[in-house]
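Bumping my old thread because nobody answered last time. Still need a sequence for this structure:
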């Protein structure tokens, strides 16, 4: 039996989280997919998948095999593309992840431009405010905001942003400004649970970094809800600069206490591809980097 076919079937079952969905994607019968996986597990002598009535999940050994499978299949695809020459057109499916608001504001326009340029491509975008494991969730490209931990992923810097405090002009007119972050507790505060939520907000002055523990008057689960509440004049919120760029431009929000901001947060495109990676990934990363590096919201410490 063709081992490459077994790898393709195994990868499809994991990514589609089921035998029936994988069979539809591969245009194979469900019994044929089941037999293929059974033969693969028998040949390897290990269990690769855990089957339940709702989902199919890889075992720990299955995750390791999945990573090797993807690498091998990508190398085969890259070899085909190299044989076809530099004019090979990207085709197939690309899976991308980014934070929710960042994905909507910056990644989606790049995806649309990419699909218009390469109509043989399909893109699946997972926009979530959590750290996503590219290998476990079968993703090709991810956007990360903040310092990166050591990993085997390749990372391309494309810009930087910063944490900012914001309040509406109406709130400032009625309640005034705190002279420093240490007086924030006397103001109405809005906090978001999205992303790397913390009960403490960190700042920096000439003596170094310090944190302020906050007890928000309003806690919401999404960044856009926190921003909207601040724009409505309820209180002060702490967000990332790109998230409020349009609000500050339209004078609906004002950045305050900017002298206490910490260092900028780098933005990276991360991916699993090496230099010989698939054309579809390389071409998307090139386009994404071009768009983001040219965006002043991500490459300029603009203040209102």
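Sorry it took so long. Here it is:
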């Amino acid at each position: 039996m063709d081992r490459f076919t077994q790898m393709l079937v195994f990868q499809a079952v994991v990514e589609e989280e089921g035998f029936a969905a994988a069979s539809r994607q591969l245009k194979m019968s469900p019994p044929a997919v089941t037999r293929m996986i059974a033969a693969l597990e028998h040949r390897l002598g290990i269990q690769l998948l855990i089957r339940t009535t709702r989902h199919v999940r890889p075992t720990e050994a299955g995750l390791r095999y999945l990573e090797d499978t993807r690498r091998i299949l990508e190398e085969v695809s890259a070899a085909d593309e190299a044989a076809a020459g530099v004019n090979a057109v990207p085709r197939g499916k690309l899976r991308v992840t980014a934070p929710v608001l960042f994905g909507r504001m910056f990644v989606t326009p790049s995806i649309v431009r990419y699909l218009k340029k390469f109509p043989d491509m399909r893109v699946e975008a997972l926009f979530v405010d959590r750290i996503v494991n590219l290998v476990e969730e079968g993703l090709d490209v991810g956007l990360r905001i903040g310092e990166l931990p050591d990993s085997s992923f390749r990372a391309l810097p494309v810009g930087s942003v910063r944490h900012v405090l914001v309040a509406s002009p109406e709130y400032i007119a009625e309640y005034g400004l705190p002279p420093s972050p240490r007086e924030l507790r006397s103001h109405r505060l809005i906090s978001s649970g999205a992303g790397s939520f913390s009960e403490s907000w960190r700042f920096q002055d000439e003596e170094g970094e310090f944190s302020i523990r906050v007890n928000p008057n309003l806690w919401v689960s999404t960044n856009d809800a926190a921003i909207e509440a601040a724009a409505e004049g309820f209180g002060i919120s702490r967000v990332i600069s790109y998230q409020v760029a349009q609000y500050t431009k339209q004078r609906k929000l004002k950045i305050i206490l900017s002298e206490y901001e910490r260092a900028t947060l780098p933005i990276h495109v991360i991916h699993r591809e090496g230099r010989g990676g698939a054309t579809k990934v390389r071409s998307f990363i090139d386009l994404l980097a071009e768009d983001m590096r040219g965006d002043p919201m991500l490459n300029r410490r603009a203040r209102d």
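The first strand starts at residue 49 and ends at 51. Let me know if any region looks off to you.
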